[in-house]
From TrEMBL:
The chain crosses the membrane at residues 29-47, 59-80, 160-178, 190-216. CDD domains: ABC_HisP_GlnQ (cd03262), TM_PBP2 (cd06261). InterPro entries: AA_ABC_transptr_permease_3TM, AAA+_ATPase, ABC_transporter-like_ATP-bd, ABC_transporter-like_CS, MetI-like, MetI-like_sf, MetN_ABC_transporter-like, P-loop_NTPase. It is a multi-pass membrane protein; Peripheral membrane protein. It comes from Pseudomonas lutea. This is Amino acid ABC transporter permease/ATP-binding protein. Residues 505-514 have a biased composition (Polar residues). Residues 17-213 form the ABC transmembrane type-1 domain. Residues 501-522 are annotated as: Disordered. Keywords: Amino-acid transport, ATP-binding, Cell inner membrane, Cell membrane, Membrane, Nucleotide-binding, Transmembrane, Transmembrane helix, Transport.
Length: 522
């Protein structure tokens, strides 16, 4: 048997084929797009902690991933027999085909989205929460943009699958590519030639969309974006436009003599049977700098996280500037907690910058979310970036900065909300030693300006030099709470001095790295 080449080529000028190409594109694009939106809702539902939401979503996904599309197509097309009201829509093979495609694709795409959603690091949501961003804002600004970038390649691949699946709709006589081909070869029996042409049409559609999606992926790929460091001329220009003084922390002196900035009363916290905080009492006056030290696992991180509601407490109460703020049993989304969280800035060990946003956008995200004007937030952000020595990097992305620079951005980001208290959880422990100094200098400057701060740190020299009080925690309790001079004067017992690497005969801290090597510092 011979292949009729001239007939094969003539099929590319058949109007019916080109029209059915449009049908295939419309059907697949709509099926993919609606399926993607519904899939996202299903994925979010499946991830919900409420079982009445997650269980139905899981059942839907399980069921419709199991039913073959062909069965579903025939089923939806015949649905008007059972439900005559659906006749107007579903007797049209395009709509019944679309419905079947959407129903199946939503189930597939839900799993793709779920993969994206769970790969967004937990720290991202914590950073958002620490900035007072609510549940919907968190999804819109932080989670979805990152999850979408992760799932995009798989979603694109799914589009190609959808294009090919549209051929199944030929069983209900929708005039798509395969139907046109079948009609032709039923008349002339040139099956191979006709089906080869049909295949080429599909390949063309997939190729064109493949290019489009490739372009989109490249466009969204952050590592392809390489904004440059601003040069000196640009910096001078920016500073003249800002025209203002370098950003200052709000002065706490006005509050001196009033209620303490922070009061922890009998804070208890357990994870299962493990009692991590065993009744912590702590009073921090406005403008005080408190360093928290102690062995790994002693509860320092947990303590500091309870202060801005990243952890709930089982017992006790936290009072902020004399006002009730957190009580055991409170819902973390209670209005007084959300208001309080906005007055507290938090800096994490792993920076938790938002990787999909520029440095400037990282700093302006929270003020803009809370309704501050764009120009005002940007001016303030530039001033804060100047303060931490990173103005020249304002338009770069976090992945283009060193760890030390990222941590300084994280400090600027926390300061952008004009917090009255700053919390630091081992801000330098993820950094290479040569990068630690710049970060500590920024924190020391804040201390000089009178910012109230709680700093979990294992930089003993630093803790002794900038703190008003050093708190030593062990086994979930405050073992010691003393001023640096009292510790240096040997008034606080052997345990603290030993932990700090202080030789009992010499008044200066020595060899902190020794205790680090001993694995004692957490
Ligand atoms: P530190 O910061 O002083 O090293 P943490 O506050 O991180 O200590 O942890 C104190 C204790 O609580 C550790 O024993 C740790 O294993 C436990 N812990 C911390 N977070 C959790 C959690 N989410 N679930 C269970 N246990 C936890
Ligand atoms: Mg810790």
């Amino acid at each position: 048997m011979q292949f009729e080449w001239s007939y094969f080529f003539s099929l590319f000028s058949v109007a019916d084929f080109w029209e059915s190409c449009i049908t295939v594109i419309e059907l697949s694009a709509l099926g993919w797009f609606i399926g993607m939106l519904l899939g996202f809702l299903l994925a979010s539902a499946k991830l919900s902690t409420a079982r009445w939401i997650s269980v139905p979503a899981s059942i839907y996904i399980w069921f419709f991933r199991s039913v073959p599309l062909l069965v579903l197509v025939v089923f939806t097309y015949n649905l008007p027999q059972m439900f005559p009201v659906t006749r107007d829509v579903l007797s049209n093979p395009f709509y019944s085909g679309l419905l079947a495609l959407v129903v199946t694709e939503a189930a597939y795409m839900a799993e793709i989205h779920r993969g994206g959603l769970i790969s967004v690091a937990k720290g991202q949501k914590e950073a958002g929460r620490a900035l007072g961003v609510g549940l919907i804002g968190m999804q819109r600004l932080i989670v979805i943009p990152q999850a979408f970038r992760i799932s995009l390649p798989t979603l694109v691949n799914e589009y190609i699958t959808v294009v090919k699946l549209t051929s199944l709709v030929s069983v209900i006589s929708l005039t798509e590519l395969l139907t046109v081909g079948q009609r032709l070869y039923a008349q002339n029996f040139l099956v191979m030639e006709t089906l080869s042409a049909v295949a080429v049409y599909y390949v063309m559609i997939v190729t064109v969309f493949g290019w489009l999606f490739h372009w989109l992926e490249q466009h969204l790929e952050l590592s392809n974006r390489k904004p440059q460091t601003l040069d000196d001329a640009a910096l001078v220009d920016l500073r003249t436009r800002l025209g203002s003084q370098p950003a200052q922390a709000p002065q706490p002196s006005a509050r001196a003599g009033l209620a303490p900035a922070l009061q922890l009363v009998n804070i208890q916290k357990r994870y299962g049977q493990h009692e991590v905080l065993k009744g912590i009492d702590l009073k921090v006056e406005a403008g005080q700098v408190i360093s928290i030290i102690g062995p790994s696992g002693s509860g320092k991180t947990t303590l500091i996280r309870t202060v801005n509601s990243l952890e709930t407490i089982d017992q006790g109460e936290i009072i902020l500037f004399g006002e009730g703020y957190i009580h055991s049993g409170d819902n973390p989304n209670a209005p007084q907690i959300r208001r309080g969280v906005q007055r507290i800035g938090m800096v994490f060990q792993n920076f938790n910058l938002f990787p999909h946003r520029t440095i400037l956008d990282n700093v302006t995200l929270a003020p803009r979310y809370h309704g501050r004007d764009r120009v005002v937030s940007e001016q303030r952000a530039y001033a804060l970036l100047d303060k931490v020595g990173l103005l020249a990097h304002a338009h770069k992305y976090p992945h283009q900065l060193s760890g030390g620079q990222q941590q300084r951005v994280a400090i600027a980001r926390a300061l952008a909300m004009d917090p009255q208290i700053m919390l630091f959880d081992e801000p330098t422990s993820a950094l290479d030693p040569e990068l630690v100094g710049d970060v500590l200098k920024v924190i020391a400057d804040l201390a000089k300006e009178g910012m109230t701060m709680l700093i979990v740190s294992h930089e003993m020299d630093f803790a002794l030099s900038i703190s008003d009080r050093v708190i030593f925690m062990e086994n979930g309790i405050v073992q010691n709470d003393a001023a640096p001079h009292a510790i240096l004067a040997d008034q606080c017992g052997e345990r603290v001095r030993k932990f700090m690497g202080l030789d009992s005969h010499s008044p200066s801290p020595h060899n902190v790295s020794k205790s680090r090597l001993a694995g004692e510092v957490g």
